[in-house]
Amino acid sequence: MARIAAKLVLASLRPSVLAQFYAYAMDSEIKPGLNNSHFLVVNTEGFEIQIYKPSQYRSWPKRGRALSLSLQALPSNQPVLTLNDWVRNLKSKGAKLITEVRLEFFGAEAWVADPEGNAFLLVVPDSKVEQI
Q1: What b/e readout covers 57-95, taking b as 16+ CB neighbours within 10 angstroms?
Q2: How many distinct helices (H) and strands (E) make up the chain?
Q3: How many CA atoms lie within 13 A of 128 on its CB side?
Q4: 8 A C-beta contact, residue 23 and residue 4
Q5: Facing residues of 11 across strands?
Q6: Is 13 helix (H, G, I), strand (E, B) or coil?
Q7: What is the C-alpha separation between 115 and 15, in angstroms, rounded?
Q8: What is the fold, at CATH topology level, of the domain defined by 70-125?
């Protein structure tokens, strides 16, 4: 069987703007895609988000949180403070907080919406908890 690469695709009304947002959120770079409405956001670990404008001949994809992007920071001794700083920085770029930052057994998490309203999860693991 051939090697399979897992990638995330995200439909966008303004793909270049959303690519800039996620490049900032993930401290990553933007690479050109197949055309001027397609961008790749790739981090140093090789994770890739393809952001594209759907064809005008297809219906718009439905939004939801059953399958979603999750961005995870490095573990922190103070995960709530670290996450609050991260959320504040993303809000300055157009994000909106959906749920309050909350402390869980593994660290801190919060649901956030990107500038186009797509929900994604931010996670900061607690450095005192063994991670998988």
Answers
A1: eeeeeeeeeeeebebebebbeebbebbbebbeebeeeeb
A2: 2, 9
A3: 7
A4: no
A5: 52
A6: coil
A7: 11
A8: 3.30.720
The answer regarding whether domain 8-52 maps to CATH 3.30.720.120 reads yes
Structure tokens at 10: 């995200």
In a 13 Å sphere around the CA of 97, the CA atoms on its Cβ side amount to 15
| E strand or H helix that includes residue 82 | helix 79-91
SS3 85: helix
The Cα 36–Cα 24 span in angstroms is 20
The token pair that represents 55 in the structure block: 């064809």
Could you tell me the pTM of the whole model? 0.78
The residues spanned by each domain of the chain are 8-52, 70-125
70-125 matches 8-52 in CATH topology: yes
Model confidence pLDDT, tens digit, residues 70-114 = 898 999 999 999 999 999 999 999 999 999 999 998 899 999 999
